[in-house]
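Work Package 3 committed the consortium to producing structural models of liganded targets before the mid-term review. Because experimental data for this complex are still outstanding, the team generated a predictive model from sequence and the ligand definition alone, so that downstream docking and mutagenesis planning could proceed in parallel. The input record is reproduced below exactly as it was submitted to the modelling pipeline, together with the SMILES string for zinc ion.
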Amino acid sequence: MKCKKVTRLLPAYLDAEADEGRKSEIERHLAGCAACRQELESLKADLELCASVEVPELSPYLATRTMAEVRSPERRRVLAGIVVRRALAGIVVRRALAGAAAAVLVAAGVWVGSFLGGEIQGSENGSSWYSVEGEPSLEDLYGLALGENGDSGEGR
Ligand SMILES: [Zn+2]
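The resulting structure, written out as tokens with the ligand in place, is given here.
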């Protein structure tokens, strides 16, 4: 039996799951192989360590206490701040994606336009047809998040 196979069978050997034939084969190999004996010892040490770790018992009131903690006014403010920040980050990402998509559309339009003899005009007149109308600005959203009324103190 080769070292690789012995190493693979060692956990079963330790658990006394290996049948007698296998067991004697492994023992014969172990008698003549220091490397596999060492492997067996470290495996035993690992198993003892696992057995010695105590799993703490969960209090039946843990869920109740956790929910009370989450519902406390202070925690709510913190959680609300996280939600607002995540929403703002989402808007920034969506705007960036919309900008990239618009750039691709413009590029495609220019490319198609070059085949149609330049009939499709670019946006030289300055109107950005892809902009989202009526969307609140980031400054407005920050003002809402901070509970300020209009004046964000940035001198707009
Ligand atoms: Zn070996």
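Reviewers should note the following from the model. The pocket of zinc ion is lined by residues 3, 6, 29, 33, 35-36 (CB under 6 Å). These observations will guide the Year 2 experiments.
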